Amino acid sequence: MRKKIIFWCLICSVAMMASMLTAYSHSKEDFAGGPGLIGMLVITTAALLIYYLKLDSGAELVPAAMKIKEQKKKGEDTTKSVTFKDVAGLDEVKEELSEVIDFIKNVEKYKKMGAKIPKGVLFHGPPGTGKTLMASAIAGESNSHFVYASGSEFVEKYVGVGASRIREVFEKAKKNSPAVVFIDEIDAIGSIRNADNNSEKDQTLNQLLVEMDGFNTNDNIVIVGATNRIDMLDPALLRPGRFDRHMFIGNPNVRAREEILKVHTRNKPLGEDVDISSIARKTHGVSGAHLASIANEAAILAVRKNKTKITNEEFCQAIERVLIGLQLKNTSVMEKEKRVVAYHEAGHALIGRILKNSPVEKISIVPRGQAMGYVLNSTDEDRYLHTRDELYNKICTLLGGRAAEEIVFREITTGAKDDLGKANEIAQQMVCELGMSDLGNRVYKCHQNGETKPMVEREIKRIIDMSYKKTKDIILDNSELLEKIASELFHKETLTGKELEAICNF
Ligand code: ATP
Predict the structure, then answer these.
(1) Are residues 40 and 80 in the same domain?
(2) What residue's CA is closest to ligand 1, atom 21?
């Protein structure tokens, strides 16, 4: 519509300019202000022409709501394009993708062999692990255009709108081939179709399938999809010839965390006391996005403190800020509550130490985010397998806070809400998914009502009750140590892992 209006304004402006020029050339005396008016019309026409050409260049092809990022093509400024160097870790994914990149770069070589370009690559895994980053690195490495679209942007109320947006994205990619089309949150349009059909969603998915089938090796386009829920995707999307290459991108291990931190600190001035590998050990279980945020927070904190370099202190604060939340200023925690929190956290630390869970990095009773206190753990190695005993020990450590409260104050508080949720989740997994309970090597559908549900519930309760009893016994046997840790914590408010060890070994 806008294009049409500009087009007709342009025509009118040209027509007016032509008629003025004719009138001026016929009688210059009668047309005294002619040159000025003609000049203005020339400027207006030129402005309209430039605007029209800009619209025509395709900037409006895809609706404004849709974010499309394009990387520079070969020969142009590629300094901003993302390459594998910007993606830390994920070596196996990079290796797997190198074939796809080679295909895009040397399409003729593969055509001669009669090989077809792999059409779709699907990244799946938890949020913030670098799926988008990896997709744009494919474009960067292969010097192709990067066309970004998010699945949720295709979800429309009106039938056919989503499908037409899909068409536009693919037209754009074909126009700019070689191209990498990245569809983030693909589950928003590609979830399993069922009986209560939603015709708009189905049409959008059908259009995506049609487009994927429609392009061939000559188009030199690769589609990369990303989802956190691969189990929700329609089988039609996953069949060979569509998204047939599935790559899991999970949270980084300790080595990858170190590499990610190096990538995100490479342009930052670091103090001599900053030890990237120790930061990596303290950030077990976090995503690449968290690590990027920690590096950035540390830099902001250093600026706030007018420092010229980022020191270890800023990194420690940034970790707590990102993982636990903002340190609350001017909180007036009642003396009694502070005491309860001190015993609660001391309970966690004591049980964790005795049962040899992950080493404690720090214990604090300074409120942060929604937590009144917390225990930060570190780890030297990433574990992929856990024994049954280790899971029991984890449950005991989680219950350590509540058990300490009950023993010391003969009263329990709401402070154990999160701990109970986590402990119950582990127990539920042990019963329903891992075959690690007295119900044997069976799996159960925990969330569905059925005749096994009461039995499953009883077993979860048994695990929790048994662990709680063990936790209380340990605390009763070590009540003096609990007392020492809690009172140190109460006075100092924060204890490091080393200080905790010193108290325990005294
Ligand atoms: P979502 O599933 O929520 O869309 P995602 O997996 O697509 O998340 P990205 O958007 O790629 O995650 O990553 C977010 C940010 O985290 C990146 O911009 C980058 O700064 C950082 N990041 C994540 N993984 C890595 C990595 N492997 N190397 C370097 N930076 C990373």
Answers:
(1) no
(2) 289
